[in-house]
Design goal:
The protein has four helices and four strands, in the order H-E-E-H-H-E-E-H. It has 176 residues and is of the alpha+beta class. It has a four-stranded antiparallel beta sheet. The radius of gyration is 20 Å and the shape is elongated. It is found in: Cell membrane.
């Protein structure tokens, strides 16, 4: 007779989880299209006010988030490219193994992959990432960013949410 304490509901794998990669492709297309428009229509470092707290400002970032390592002689281009490729591969493998109840992960992982690939394109083609979204208030400017960065940020928030709330949900379901 099976021991009742050892029986847990089986978490089924998600059916065709890689189909969610369409979301990564959408982030890449939207990112590259908006960067093309920004590069074509804006003058470098000349803000165009859209709202009192938001400008479109074309900037080139050879570094990473918040211009990390931007002042180095160029090796960081390849370093960040390798990180983007490795992260995209690793996250795609993770995506291929998610469970049916991990819907938020099915969205979060492709958002990060799409953002990484959008910025990777810039690094490989231009040697820098095109940024153009600039928020500011009371003389303080948040570092400029782009659609790829939005995808990465939303995806990371989804991962954090899933790791906290999803784990609680799974533990609660196991107790039931």
């Amino acid at each position: 007779m099976p021991n009742a304490t050892n029986t847990r509901p089986q978490r089924l794998p998600m059916h065709r989880p890689l189909r969610w990669l369409w979301l990564a492709a959408a982030v890449v297309v939207l990112d590259l299209a908006t960067k093309y428009l920004a590069s074509s229509l804006l003058s470098y470092a000349q803000p165009v006010e859209v709202l009192p707290f938001f400008n479109l400002t074309l900037l080139h970032n050879p570094g990473a988030a918040f211009s990390f390592l931007a002042d180095h002689p160029g090796w960081q281009r390849w370093f960040f490219a390798i990180i983007a490729i490795g992260a995209s591969i690793g996250l795609s493998i993770w995506l291929s193994r998610i469970k049916a109840d991990e819907k938020l992960l099915a969205v979060a992982l492709p958002l990060i992959i799409g953002g990484a690939l959008g910025n990777l394109f810039d690094r490989l083609v231009h040697g820098y990432v095109v940024d153009f979204l600039s928020f500011h208030a009371a003389g303080w400017y948040y570092p400029a960013f782009n659609v790829a960065d939005i995808g990465i940020t939303l995806g990371a928030a989804g991962l954090i949410w899933e790791s906290v709330v999803g784990e609680r949900r799974r533990k609660k379901a196991q107790r039931s």
